[in-house]
Amino acid sequence: MRDCVRARVRERERMGVVVLQVGQGGNQFGLSLFDALFSLTSSLANEFFREPRRSADLPRARAVLIDSEPKVVAAVKRRSRAMGYWRYGPYSSYTEDSGSGNNWAKGFCRLGPSWQDALSDLVRREVEMCDIFDGFITSQSLAGGTGAGIGSYLLEVLKDEYPSCNTLSHCIWPLEGECTVQYYNVVLSIAHLCDVVDGLLLVKNETLMSTCKKALGIQRPSFDDMNTVGARALASVLVPAYYQTKPKLTGLLKSSGKAATTCKVKSSDCQSQMMSSTQVRILSDLVTGLCSHPKYRMLALRNTPQVPTGLDNSTTHPWKSHLKQLKQMLYMEPSWAMESTSSVHGHKCTSDYSAFRKIDRCVANLLVLRGKGSSDADVSLLEDKALYPVWSKDPLMVATNTAPLGDFHIFASLLSNCSSAIAPAAHALSRARAMHASKAYLYQYAKHGLSMDDFDTSFEAIEAVLEQYREL
Amino acid sequence: MPREIITIQCGQCGNQVGCRFWELALQEHAAFNPSGVFYFSMSSLFRNMDTRFKPPRELPVSDGISKIKDLEARAVLVDMEEGVVNQLLKGPLSNLFKSRQCITGISGSGNNWAHGHDVYGPQYGEAILEKIQSEAEKCESLQSFNILHSLGGGTGSGLGSYIMEALHDNYSGVLRISVPVFPSKDDDVVTSPYNSMLAVKSLVDHADCVLPIENEALCEILDKMEVRKLRSPTLYVPKPSKGKKHPSGKGFDAMNEIVANLLLHLTSSVRFDGSLNVDLNELTTNLVPFPKLHFLMSSMSPALHGPSHENAAQLPTVNQLFTDVILHKNQLVKGNPLACTYLASAFLFRGSQSNVSDLSANICHLRQRMKMVHWNPEGFKIGHCFRPPLHAPQALLCLANNTCIRAGIHSNA
Q: Is the pLDDT of residue B35 over 90?
């Protein structure tokens, strides 16, 4: 193996990503995410797990768990111990007893600043255990006070402390009726996060629930079921893959023990990967490739299939149907397109649904294909110029890995910087404006230092983001 | 780790309701704790004391595996007559309360709000606050004060109002939740309308959240259960107490049990795990859009021992629980919420047989029947606690900020 390849291998092995789990939803999802990251790969994903000090111990997740009440973090740690494959670090969590009362202002203006020193120390400790630190992935819900409020504050602080790191925020969009003040919390969070994170991945609980019901046949899905589906989708773009670069020979290969075994078995595939591929650097490439424009940061994730299918040797183009399905998913879901705005108290809502185009236009896409023959798949369907604005150069990045993803012999994921967030964001904005016009609940936020002007600023920030995407 | 709730029982009614509440709380924790360990969930309502020391030493929860030695309730008992409190201190719950948690007078308030508020308030106020402070200092993270009182008499309404005002001044950062029992139309206290009107003013200004209860509504719920008993002879209905009865003939014990179940359900998410935890702080944030509009209609399904002896096939499904809980006959205050406007509502579910998709689907159905205020058409809050109550494998509590509460307050005050 060449020296440059050895250097890249060593670098990749030592890169670390720290996952910040904030709030009840964020911690519950984070548990599922680490479970997926562990079980869907044949060897330990060193970016997300570190080897324990004693070889007899289990690998430790590179995670910091944060919540304003103690029960959820305790339950999550208990469940990870019960699974028995990996654990959270013993000093990697911070909880208090106060609760944030679903109040974004309490989380952002009160609790965040008072916890800042303790959280910074905790995060720094985890970051220092990465030889090369790639960045943060946060897992948070947007509905409540802790994940949304404290999560937003923490990301602002970390942006100052680690100015060159990459941040991807995985935000859980609540179900309708989960929380009365959720639209305030959602709008305030997105307005603040857009300024500080590199990529904002919005995942709707409704979509996950619908996937569980329709694709997986689970009639009454629980949060665990939904988190499993969401975690698998996110893990599918985070676990190792190789993107095709032409024509230079910049091959590299995972060289951990298990992967080497895998490559011995599939030597021809590995050989071709070595000859023509470059390892995807999880956060840096993802973020620079998809979110290089400062005004476009909203990401969406689509994947297929949802149920493991066996190897289909009968067709010569197994990837064609999956890629076609991914392209179809880029067309706006009917439920979103049917939303309508109304004017309230004479205040005309500025979100205009008639401006929506039929397809989710994309700034850039990362397509990750896993399974046999992935490197030879024809991706021209997603290279369609109609999907992208004219100013977007090389908008499609393709990464592949011949290794299957857990039980899935074939798996395709599409991480898009696209306009699919317009509909839910506009809906949230109109609801928040309606409550704001009636001054409902504002005294709760004012108690902790958030004024009506702060709300107006956030509304304008969201409008600006939506406008950018409408122009795509 | 624990997040404590201090219960302040004021007056005869408050102490009787409180007595029933502590009985059921002990039974609830004992049912899921056969090994007698002092779990974190118990520390919200109780302290674990080692009485071998003088004075007794509190045993911290620490890692949640220490055995229960002697439980003490986090409570302050106030009454201007000695009878009820003395009965409590001599009865089966005597170990829970110590005399340092009790303040009693001798002559009562004469069913006069002014006597309770303006005479006993200043006279006993400092002593009451000292006892409350002593309780509060033993809490690591005090979440709320729950005040149990009636509004028709003198002590519960007058002295209760004074205590509420004092808590507002001295503990402004801690929630004040009042569970007042409104007098019924045929109440035997002549001055009850004056007393309740004066107390409501104090609740408007000083409470964070009020969950009114009406004896008439409780009687109707019990009537319904007796009708069900006639149809289904094996159905258990609590026996009427031998003691004082409500003018309708119903024992107060059964009525107090409904209120006790309400309090246990309200605090279940603070004490036990769930997939969607709801703190008491979250309830006020979600249900109180304007500071003075904090009077909430409450209803439970099932409210009481219901299906313990029934066939499993007759147990209500989660859909039935949702359908029942918004009906006027299940409200703990007289009123028909479906005929009026909802500002916000919370549905707190207890039980592990259903999950978030069931709750979400039911809320979508209920929306069609509920008239929501125009600026909050999706004003719902869902809570899910895994631990069911004692009296049913699953139960639902609905707290609604609904405009029909004004009829209840208007007619009683």
A: no
How far apart CA A16 and CA A136 sit, in angstroms, is 9
Instruction: Give this complex's ipTM.
Output: 0.88
From chain B, pick out residues whose CB is under 8 angstroms from the CB of A99: 3, 143, 279, 281-282
Pair of tokens at residue B86? 């003395």
- Going by C-alpha positions, the residue among B208, B154, B142, B216 that lies closest to residue B179 is B208
Compute the mean pLDDT over every residue in chain B, rounded to the nearest whole number.
86
Yes or no, beta carbons of B286 and A72 under 8 Å apart? no
**Quick check: B387 contacting A, CB < 8 Å?**
no
Which bin fits A84, alpha (ψ -120 to 50), beta or left (φ > 0)?
A: left
pTM: 0.87
User: Could you tell me how far CA A357 lies from the centroid of its own chain?
Assistant: 25
Q: Are B50 and B59 in contact (CB under 8 A)?
A: yes
Chain B interface mutation, best of A24, A76, A175, highest count of B Cβ atoms under 10 Å: A175
- The β-bridge partners of A67 are A95
Domains, chain A, ranges and CATH?
A: 2-238 (3.40.50.1440), 242-422 (3.30.1330.20)
User: Nearest by CB to B140, which of A71, A97, A438?
Assistant: A97
**Catalytic (active site) residue B137:** no
pLDDT along chain A (472 residues), means of 10: 55 79 96 94 87 83 94 92 91 89 94 95 94 93 94 95 94 91 96 93 93 91 94 92 51 31 34 53 84 90 84 64 85 45 32 52 90 85 85 87 88 91 92 94 94 94 92 82
How many residues would you count in chain B? 413
Rounded to whole angstroms, the maximal C-alpha distance in chain B is 61
How confident is the model over B276-288, as a mean pLDDT?
91
Alpha-carbon gap, residue B390 to B300, rounded angstroms: 14
A203: DSSP letter:
E
Alpha helices in A317-402 (DSSP H): 318-329, 334-337
